[in-house]
Amino acid sequence: MTDPTRPVAPPPIFLLPTTGSSYDAAVLAEADRIVSTHQYCGRTDVEGMAYAVADYARQHPEQGQQLQDAIGSHLLPMDQIALTNAVQTVQRLDQAKPIGTQHGVAVDVAPGDSERSVLDKGYRQMAADAGLSPQAVAEFARRAPALDDGTLHAPSGDPQRQGPAIDLSAARDGKIELAPTSAQSGLLKLLAAQDRSSLDPSAPTGAAAGIPFMPDGSRAGAPGNGAVTPEIAAEMLRNISEGKPPFRPDLGKVGPVSWFVTEGNPHVGVGNDKSVVVPVEVANTSGKPPLQFGERELLEIYDRKYAAAAEAVEQQVREKAGKGPDEPLSKRNQNTIERSASKMAERQMWTEVGEAVAKSESGVGKVSLQDSMFSRSANGEFTLTSRPENVRVQGGAQGLLDVIKNHGVKADPEVLKSANDLAAREGWAGKVEGAFRVGGRVLIVVGVAADAYRIYTAEDKVKTVVEVAGGWAGAAAAGGAFATVAAPVNTTGPWGWAAYGVGTLATGAFGYMAGSEITKTIYELVVEGKPIEVGG
């Protein structure tokens, strides 16, 4: 009896010859098995098929191409191309050698060779030994010269350090052993992780994948921009109105600093919830020089962080796979470890930059991203600071209010009506000029005089008729508790950074679980705390 839960291989799209053909029956049976294993629910696991083909080809070299063709006959043309590329990548990675400052390559030295020409040969050999694609080999050869000042380096006895500088006199029998510098080692690992990411269509391509700030005309120098959630923008407004610094660098999630784009439009990896771009001016009040970070410094930090990151990821993979410390891992698991370790090492790299700036005499740092592996889309510069007094919002409270009004989500007409009813009921002076949704709350802007505003923060207690009102009330209470604990909090910095806005929404959604089905929407605004005074 056929097991209905077992996947069934689809019929071939492109029929293979069966009579008088050179296709072995065992190869065709293996192709059917691989297809049935890696095609399910309308999805084709090309990566899994590629590993299976590579494993079979290692055991049966003369039949590897037959197997790939037989599998391809079951696939659409697009998946056939993807399978061919994935098999080539897996087979190339199978031949990859370890990467690090302790691993050298033997480079031929001919009479008349210069150190530069020997280095150029060494770069390509290092990249080829690392299992990089031809395109990545060329990219490494282009970027590597900027990372060693034209100096030859021997292998190091310590993977956390680069080897000693040498010259061509170290050549023996027409060969010299060269090793990458720490920055070049980091570059090789980053490029290798990108190659491995091409095996997984769901993985972001390129380093620092994410959503860039939109600086809206930012220029070099002190003026800059920081992307924050609407909730944080509202808390910043309250801070300014009370005479406090708008940002709290000590609460930063990528080092105890605040990060700002002060030049260009670098790829920074912020989340979609960081929708409010706040124009700021960043000063250096210490009189001490800021710390400077360029591509070489970033890659050196990344290289140092990689080994520990790979160890941590491997432990997680082994636990998930139920494998002991001495049991061999599959090639797929190994590539997963290297991809994930690269992401973890990059996150830790940014954190170390922030921590170093916080410990510095100036409390200010500059990160220059010019033709950078960490900002492939555009050049730019970050300025980061650990000192809240260094940051001023352009235009003060009025400027920030304008930003919130321009970026905020205007409330529904029913909510605006509720705001007017609330103003009349409470006897507020002035006119309600607008209501804006900020997370789970509503900012009510009341004009009390020319260029003077009073801003009330109201909880939007949405009810859904009497019998289910408790559900939304619970959500509002849960979200409010999180916001009270978390705000104000800095949310700028590379790689997504803090999840304050997400936390508020998730907590609120959990609170609503006590409610029931929605049948009718009623808005009830309840003012929280004292109003924010702006202008006047």
List the helices and strands and how they pair.
Blueprint: H1 25-38, E1 39-40, E2 43-44, H2 46-59, H3 64-72, H4 77-94, E3 105-108, H5 115-129, H6 134-143, E4 152-153, E5 165-166, E6 175-178, H7 182-197, E7 223-228, H8 230-241, E8 258-264, E9 276-282, E10 291-293, H9 295-321, H10 331-359, E11 364-369, E12 380-385, E13 391-393, H11 396-407, E14 409-410, H12 413-426, E15 431-438, E16 441-449, E17 452-463, H13 469-486, H14 500-511, E18 522-535
Parallel strand pairs: 10-11
Antiparallel strand pairs: 1-2, 3-6, 4-5, 7-9, 8-12, 9-13, 11-12, 14-15, 15-16, 16-17, 17-18
Query: What is the average per-residue confidence, as pLDDT, rounded to a whole number?
Result: 76
Number of helices: 14
Distance linking N and C termini: 83 Å
Low-pLDDT runs of 5+ residues are 1-8, 201-221, 463-522
Instruction: Please state the structural category.
Output: alpha+beta
Helix content: 40-55%
Instruction: Please state how the strands of the largest beta sheet are arranged side by side.
Output: 14-15-16-17-18
Largest pleated sheet:
5 strands, antiparallel
| Rg from alpha-carbon coordinates | 29 Å
Assess the beta-strand content as a share of residues: 15-25%
Total beta-strand segments: 18
Please state the overall shape, judged from the principal axes of the Cα atoms: flat
